[in-house]
Predict the structure.
Amino acid sequence: MLRTQEYFLNFGPQHPSTHGVFQIILTLDGERIVKAEPVCGYLHRGIEKLAESRTYTQVIPYTDRMDYLAAMLQNLGYVQAVEKMMGIEVPERAEYLRVISGELSRLTSHVLATGVYALDIGGFTGFLLCFREREKMMDLLEELTGSRMTLSYARIGGVADDAPEGWLDKLDKLMDEMPGYIEEYNGLITGNEIFQARTKFVGQLKPETAVNYSLSGPVLRASGVNYDLRKAKPYGIYDRFDFEVPLGENGDCFDRFYCRVLEMEQSVKIIKQAIEQIKEVDGPVMAKVPKVLKPPKGEVYHEIETSKGIIGYYVVSDGSNKPYRVHVRRPSFINLGYLDEMLKGYLIADVVAILGSIDIVLGEVDC
Amino acid sequence: MKEQLAPVDEMKQKFSYIEFDEQKTVNVPADKLLEFMQAMKDEYALDFLTNLTAVDYPEENKLQVVYNLNSIEKGYTLMVKTDVDREHPEVPSVFPVWGGANWQEREVYDLLGIVFTGHPNLKRILLDDKFEGHPLRKDFRWEGGRE
């Protein structure tokens, strides 16, 4: 009789499908996964420690470098936490610009996730198509903030600058075209038979497991749990917009992917409404805040919904101009916490499909 | 938009050992933590452990573990804290209550050196296994720091 034995396979850290430097040590029985051990930390820069020797404003660019695919949302979480601690009222126009740039950031992140997921499964054309629109959004973000990815657009008390002339019209035009592009993605990726065969009923997550493991974002909502902070605990001015929270049914890779596609439509809807409403609002984009920020002694925990899930900032102040402690609850990091159990029993090829469907950014995982 | 908070006053009557401040942040002694957290999940529907972290306060010779809980169903939130001695930092792991504590407790162990008793796999997660010290402690000094 033949003797069989299990063997190890290193997936990553240098592997394009890990979307960065991330390692999974797989124990395999033939092609089936018996055990998976995720190893992260290759990109750890100690942002939380660095923040302790920077002033409150100097921390903002560091938040860009966590989830650099949706940097505005990272900025926003942090500045809102500090504003909450200091009791700063943000001018109306700045709130609208935050929503517009934030949702545009979410769109770029979701477009990238959609395209890259197609690439993970082996569909190169879908990837290229998504990057076509992403480039247009990046150009708009660059025009608004001066930077393509590391935006640092939010400030404590408002935003860096008002939108340049004609910018909102350009954005409006792109948003009018977006539904057509999304239909193209659906035709090319979502409806593809091979794509569906690879993703449907793979890596299924039960709703109670997803909640128990603190998963958030599209990963949680694909399992049918209706928890989007923009609806559940509206921050900023999100209660003024009419949008829906797309939910999945099976909690599989396909639902996680498709939730993002549906969320793109909702983001477009929010941006359209915001462009309409901001026309009525004039005035400054920065509140009157002191040059040197010294929040009162105390602490605050504030969380918002980014493209990956819930990002939370826990900031402790000792009354000086530098934060005593900054902790970031990073959605990508926590969403990976259940990966080892999710992979068990699947084939090697499914590892890429399952990991890709969680949509992680290693800059955020490792912080 | 004001955030909804869990009914802390009602909790105080049930669990006499807890204390809370004006922001309704609950402070629980470490030896009662697991019992209290289980009750929070079962009785108050705080089913989502959204954040788990810790802060070092060397002047008071303590490390403070911070838990942020959300209720998806009821929509309210609760912040729970527990103080531990800096020399022998040991807290029971809340992994049996919320699976989400798994990686977050490993992170706190890695960066602040708090030992979570009962954790199934407590080892470093971000730093190298051979790394010495816990960088988020205030007395940790490293080359290239700004001080």
